[in-house]
Here is the input.
Amino acid sequence: MTDSKKIQWLVITDLDGTLLNHHDYDIQGALPAIKKLHQQDIPVIFNTSKTFSETISLQNKIKIEAPFVVENGSCIYFPKSLYPDLKSSKIISSREQYWEIVLGQTHSSISDILKLIDTPPSCYQLLSACSPEEASNLTGLSIKQAEQAISREFSEPLIWDADNEKLALFKQQLKEHNLNTLQGGRFLHVLGNCDKGIATSKLKDILMTEEHNIKTIVLGDSANDAAMLEVADMSIIVNSPSNHHLQQMITPNIHTTQEAPAGWSEGIDTALLTLKKSKYKELS
Here is the structure.
């Protein structure tokens, strides 16, 4: 029996190195593709390692109102203005103008565990322990943006300064305390038992309706994007300096030749053209 549901496509995207240029965080080259998606009623949903405040700042800058996922799948937010009746589950709480679904652990609990395990702090540099100036030097962010990046709520990015043998032991100790690690473009992220793929699947389940079948175009550039690319209906790797490990983990439907932000537009244009030629002709 043929599925009579109308297909609602979502674009779910990483930010740094995927939508934003890896080096200078430029987004200008992606704006025409974002406008094209808006005209076709295809939401652009950020699924990022960035914090709540960082993500909202970018949404406001480019005038996007949509759900978003922060800190590598640790928490999902839905604007109440778009989903006023969403609160139908005990797992959903309220935060300002958003419904909130926490999938990870709090930053304070992660900090407590880091103090408990045997790996000495000399092996790593914590982002949250940096001053805004130090974080700005590490990331290339402005001082204001660095302040937002430091304000972690569900994860701890760090730079590993020891050998691989000690890193393996560090990861094992974290697992014993129900913590996970994900390698991003710049940082190794310590977080709860969650990832961008789990958050993507959860978001799809919540947005699925009797009328619409949710399908996703997912874009990423580094290893911490692998889980969400694996659950995509159409996966896109955007060319970036962080591609090496990801290419060993995922064979995407599309791999762009250009880096972000032009590479993001290249991926979206290729995906939309592919959909027009395929069985997925109902774009919205």
